[in-house]
From TrEMBL, chains A, B:
GO molecular-function terms, A-Z: DNA binding; DNA-binding transcription factor activity
Alphabetized InterPro entries for the sequence: TF_FadR/GntR_C, Tscrpt_reg_HTH_GntR, WH-like_DNA-bd_sf, WH_DNA-bd_sf
Keyword Transcription regulation: yes
Alphabetical UniProt keywords: DNA-binding, Transcription, Transcription regulation
Organism: Oceanobacillus chungangensis
Pfam families in the cross-refs: GntR
PANTHER family: TRANSCRIPTIONAL REGULATOR, GNTR FAMILY (PTHR43537)
Stated name of the protein: FadR family transcriptional regulator
Domain HTH gntR-type stretches: 7-75
DNA sequence: AGTTATAGGTGGTCTGACCACCTATTAATT
DNA sequence: AATTAATAGGTGGTCAGACCACCTATAACT
């Protein structure tokens, strides 16, 4: 008796598709093989292929146009998030993990970006801080998005963005207004070591 | 000509299912109607029902057991984050991002776990360090897996595992053997602040 | 009563059939 | 010849029906 639950076909298809994208170095906008072609190539029924594709579509990873084909899309989580938020039963453990993880990543990004700012960048950050937003969280997103871009670490940025989207639907998680200003101040004064402390103070 | 793209059947099914759950006040663990029953009730083909259910399953919102039925599950974003991350990971061309991010997460986990060790834990960690492994990376994985478990942050652990899996296939990323021993020493001597430095030294 | 068949329900999967839609090629029209 | 119209083939969207493997409760047997 195996402890491994046998993998469903559509799960395998997911892996295969991922492999295909990697192997062929596909980028956003590129076309995937047709459903019928995939079915033949992967030795699976078209319905199984579709189950995998539909799931990917719901996650916003692919776009499908009737009569044309299936295409890799630039990742936009909005539809996923919206769907999830309507289903979500909040589980405190999960929530805490999420917020804690997000904060860690924000902190490390803030440190990574430390020596990559110009005077013009500081101006722009102050401007973002002073701007008025519809939702307080928009400031947070704009501000940290700027920082993440400065780190040049796209992966970290994407993961953060993902976490941001997920946490956003559950509860507001905005830092104290003075926080942002203080962070920029640390940047301008080249005070690296205090960044860690600044984030620690934000523990709620 | 309508600007609204006509909704696909499985999208509608998603809405119907959500409505069904709400209307009948279903909680985690409760059973959904069978696929055939839903197909009849919603006037749709079973394959369309399945496309919706598979998407929900991938999102971690439902669980299906062959021969039994489909059940509401407690919501865990881990699965989703994992899947999305796996796509995001392969997309980012720079593998350096991956290693840097992984190291950051390992470092923060090491700090999170700081005050959660017992003397027995230290013994176990030393044992893991001294064990012989087939691959050097196995030690790394075993050691940090232990640390991640101690943090109690399952989300962070999963993301790390994912990164580990990806990086593993590309290039070995093992710390200096003395590193692990030194980390445990910092734990035993309650030297929190030196953890950050220890990881910095590992910069290659 | 306890055990063993058994029948029916359930998800898992495949196949084949249409439909609506898009595009490129071809044919018809001017 | 240039333009337009018809067409054929590919693509996703959807359905119906067929098996299979698996589970469970019931019925039959000992």
């Amino acid at each position: 008796m195996s402890l491994l639950p046998k993998q469903k076909v559509y799960q395998g298809v997911l892996d295969e598709i991922r492999g295909f994208i990697e192997k062929n170095k596909l980028n956003a906008g590129d076309k995937l093989p047709s459903e019928r072609e995939l079915a033949e190539k992967l030795q699976a029924g078209r319905s199984s292929i579709r189950e995998a594709l539909r799931a990917l579509e719901l996650l916003g990873l692919i776009e499908t146009k009737a009569g044309e084909g299936t295409f890799l899309s630039t990742y936009r989580p909005f539809q996923t998030v919206e769907l999830l938020s309507s289903f979500i039963l909040q589980e405190s453990n999960t929530r805490e993990d999420l917020f804690l993880s997000k904060r860690i990543i924000e902190k490390e990004a803030a440190k990574l970006a430390f020596d990559r700012f110009t005077d013009q960048d500081f101006e722009e950050m102050y401007r973002m801080i002073d701007d008025t937003y519809e939702h307080p969280n928009d400031r947070h997103v704009a501000f940290f998005n700027f920082i993440f871009m400065k780190t040049g670490n796209l992966l970290l940025a994407r993961i953060w963005h993902l976490m941001e989207k997920f946490s956003h639907t559950i509860k507001r998680d905005v830092y104290d207004p003075s926080f942002y200003r203080e962070l920029v101040r640390l940047y301008t004064e080249h005070d690296y070591v205090s960044i860690e402390n600044l984030f620690s103070k934000q523990e709620s």
